[in-house]
Structure formats: C-alpha cells, structure tokens
Design brief:
Blueprint lengths: L11 H9 L1 H11 L1 H12 L3 H29 L1 H20 L4 H29 L5 H26 L5 H7 L2 H12 L5 H6 L3 H11 L2 H16 L6 H4 L6 H16 L2 H6 L1 H7 L4 H29 L1 H24 L6 H19 L1 H12 L5 H30 L1 H21 L9 H8 L5
Helix pairs in contact: 1-6, 1-7, 2-6, 2-7, 2-9, 3-7, 3-8, 4-5, 4-6, 4-21, 5-6, 5-8, 5-9, 6-7, 6-20, 6-21, 7-8, 7-17, 7-20, 11-12, 14-20, 14-21, 14-22, 16-17, 17-18, 17-19, 18-19, 18-20, 18-22, 20-21, 21-22
C-alpha cells in the first residue's frame, strides 16, 4: 500500500468538520455580541431608536447579501477559497467596528461582518457535508449549529466579562478578530472538497483528499460514484441550473423549510425573550435571568439533537420535535388569551417557552442546514444553498422586524396562535414534502430525489 493510501485516520474528518464549523462560531459570536455592546454604543454615538435599529439590522442586510452571492462563487472557485475570504472579511469587519468613530462607520462595519456571516452560513454546511461520510454526515453538519449556539454563549460571556471596562464595546466587537484568525489558519490547513475537485476535472487531487478521509477500500468506489452521478447530470450550472424541473422537489423542500421554520417565530422568541418572560408573569430581573437559561437550554438540546439526527432521521426528528413546538405555542397562546399569567399559570407560561426552545433546538435548528446541504445536487449545490440561506436571512429579518408590531397590534395570544398554526404546517411539511436522507451518500440522494438533475 502506498504512503498516500495509508494516510486515512478516523478522527481526521471530525477535526476537519470542527475547523470548518469555526465559521459557525463566528456567525454566533457576531450576531450575539451586539446585545452587550449596544448600550455603550448608544451612549458613545448618541444613537436614537432608529439609528440603533439600523446598527443592529445592518448585520442581517449584509448576511442576506453574503448568502446570496457566496454560493455561485464557491461553485466556481471552490469551498475553501470562499471560506478563506470569509475569514478575511470577519477580520476586517471586526477591526473596523472596534475603531469606529461615527455611526456610518459602525454601520459599514456591521454590514461587512454580516457579509462574512452570510458566506459562512451558506458554505460551511456544504463543505462539511461534502467531506463527511454518510453515517456521520448529519452529526458533523450539525456541528455548525452547535458552534453557532456556542458563539452566542461566548458573546454573552465576553459581554459580561468586559462590561464596565473603558470603551468596553470596542473590546467586545474587536475580540472577534481572534477566532477569525484561527478560522483562516484552520481553513488553510485543509484540502478542497473532494466532490468539488471531481466535478472540476481534478480527479487525482480528489482521490488524494478522499484517501485522507475514507478507508482505502472505499476511496475508489466513492470516487466512481461521484463521477458516474455527475456524468448523468445537467451541464448547466449556477443560477440557470436552478431552473431545471428535476430540482423542483428539492428546492421546494429546502426553501420551504427555511420559510416555515422562520415563521414559527424562533428568532423573535430568542431576540425578545426578556419581554416574553415578563408577559408570562416574571419581573424584569427574573426575566433576564430566565433568558440566560434559554441559552443553556438551547446549547444542551442542540447536542441532544446532534446525537439523534443520524439515528432517527432528519424528517422524523423535525416532525416529532415540531409537534412539541406546536403544543408549547398553543398553550402559551391560551394562557395569554386569559390575561397576564400569574401564580401557577406563570410557571406554566415559562415552561412553555423553555419547551419551545428545547423542541426547536433539538429538531428545526439541527436539521435546517443539514437537509438542504444534502438534497441539492453537486453541480448547483453552492448556488442553491445561497438561495436557500438568503431566503432564511430575509425571513429572519421580516419576522424580527414585525414581531413587536404584530404583538402590540393583535396581542400575544393571536401572535403565538399564528406561530402555532405555522408550526403545525411545518409538521405536515416535514412528513409529506421533505425527503429522508439518513444513511445515504450524497450521490444516492442526487439520483433518487433530483434524477441526476438532468
């Protein structure tokens, strides 16, 4: 056996996935840090309510643009160069934010950081899915979500540790430089995706990369499967390739998941958790403490979802967990319909919020990136993922923007009743529209659900 053939190490693919998932850590940190930095920024820049909203939402705008543009670039130039670029974008954005002296400057920095977040949210799941073996792919792609949640928790911890330091907000946003540099160094140490290499005629390099991540007996079989699937696929790439009728089912499944997932109110509940807890009958200080508990529950149940996704399957995990989402939202809406909860009703209301967070963390949040990264065929995977995650960010922006207006106009009972009905629609969608991909190679999935994308 040659030296190259003996380079396989079982833990190498897990290490590679962890390195790539650092992009998710940056995603989480940069979205979470603003909660602690904004009060000091408000004083320094004399921000109004409107300008505060612009500073916060600038990241979402940048993320939507980054997600929509990065996929085509990754299909053309490779997953690795695009994530290296994202690392550089994160570094530039963090430094610019830390030295900002005006509102336009901090808004520009937040847009740049958001662009990096959008690139990472689109390409990280694709890169991991193309490296991972079928039996581990769900858990390894879910590392991205675990890192996002961990990044948010890290942001909360840094906000707490740095609060009160001179120019604390500069340190909070600037600290992102450290994981950004580590992310870039880590990506430099990795090879390009073997599937991208095979698609672009670099068969020898693809074989060498596979020899690092697969047992020697599996390398040639997997490479031949990749080549056979792509030989039968449509020649059209990029945005034009998405018009192929054979892709309709997988695009509906992937994009529909993003739309319905966001319309269950998940980001609104996280963003406005203190207000929701106060509405459930807690005082202001207790509501803030309960919000910390939300972060802990989110992290713990993400790990539980990761452990289950390759055992029970994507659609079953999503469907069953979302049933609990429906029940928690419905009960919470019922409580609010009967006035502000107090006493035992307050305890039930708080429990409903925690059950909601736990069910979303175990199901929806674990599979939301896994399912599209597996369903889309190789030739258009990056572009299709861009469209999908771009829709996700757009819906996130809409839901977060409208939550308080709907809540104040219609009341909490109607608002959470609407979210419950959407969650019920997601249960039906999960069991009837989204194909199950557990245990199948990406090539098997492509042939079965998009007909080779002819």
């Amino acid at each position: 056996m040659s030296k190259s053939e003996s380079s396989y190490k079982p833990g190498r693919v897990i290490w590679a996935a962890l390195v790539i998932a650092l992009g998710g850590l940056l995603f989480g940190y940069d979205t979470g840090v603003i909660s602690g930095a904004l009060p000091s920024m408000t004083g320094y820049f004399e921000l109004s309510d409107l300008s505060s909203g612009v500073v916060v939402s600038a990241l979402v705008v940048g993320a939507a643009v980054g997600a929509l543009t990065s996929g085509r670039m990754s299909d053309r130039f490779g997953r690795r160069p695009v994530l290296l670029s994202a690392s550089a974008i994160f570094i530039v954005g963090a430094i610019l934010a830390a030295v900002s002296v005006s509102v336009p400057m901090i808004v520009a920095a937040r847009i740049i950081i958001g662009f990096g977040v959008g690139v990472a949210s689109s390409i990280v799941p694709v890169f991991i899915s193309e490296l991972a073996p079928a039996h581990l792919r769900g858990r390894l792609v879910a590392l991205n979500q675990l890192m996002i949640v961990s990044g948010i928790m890290l942001a909360y911890l840094s906000n707490y540790a740095l609060h009160g330091v001179s120019d604390d907000w500069r340190w909070m946003v600037g600290l992102a430089v450290v994981p950004s540099v580590l992310f870039g160094i880590g990506i430099l140490s990795l090879d390009e995706s073997p599937r991208w290499l095979a698609l672009n005629g670099q068969t020898d390099r693809a074989r060498e990369v596979l020899r690092k991540f697969r047992p020697a007996d599996d390398v040639m079989t997997e490479l031949a499967d990749i080549q056979r699937t792509e030989e039968s696929a449509s020649a059209e790439e990029g945005w034009g390739g998405l018009r192929d009728p054979a892709l309709r089912r997988v695009l509906v499944a992937g994009i529909g998941l993003q739309i319905l997932g966001q319309l269950t109110g998940v980001n609104a509940v996280v963003y406005y958790a203190p207000s929701i807890f106060e509405g459930a009958g807690l005082g202001a200080s207790s509501a803030l403490l309960a919000t910390v508990g939300v972060g802990v529950v989110n992290l713990v149940f993400t790990v539980i979802g990761m452990a289950l996704v390759d055992k029970v399957g994507r659609t079953k995990l999503l469907g069953v967990c979302t049933i609990f989402t429906v029940l928690s939202l419905a009960v919470f809406a019922f409580l609010l319909a009967n006035g502000a909860p107090s006493g035992a009703a307050s305890v039930v209301g708080v429990a409903c919020v925690f059950i909601y967070i736990a069910s979303v963390a175990t199901g929806l949040d674990v599979v939301v990136f896994i399912i599209p990264s597996e369903l889309y065929p190789l030739r258009v995977r990056g572009t299709a993922m861009s469209l999908t995650i771009g829709v996700n960010w757009t819906m996130s922006f809409i839901v977060s923007l409208t939550f308080l207006s709907i809540f104040n106009a219609l009341g909490g009972a109607v608002t959470f009743g609407i979210y419950a009905l959407v969650a019920l629609a997601l249960v039906v969608f999960a069991f009837t529209v989204i194909p199950e991909t557990k245990g199948k190679s990406l090539e098997e999935i492509e042939r079965e659900f998009s007909g080779g994308a002819r």
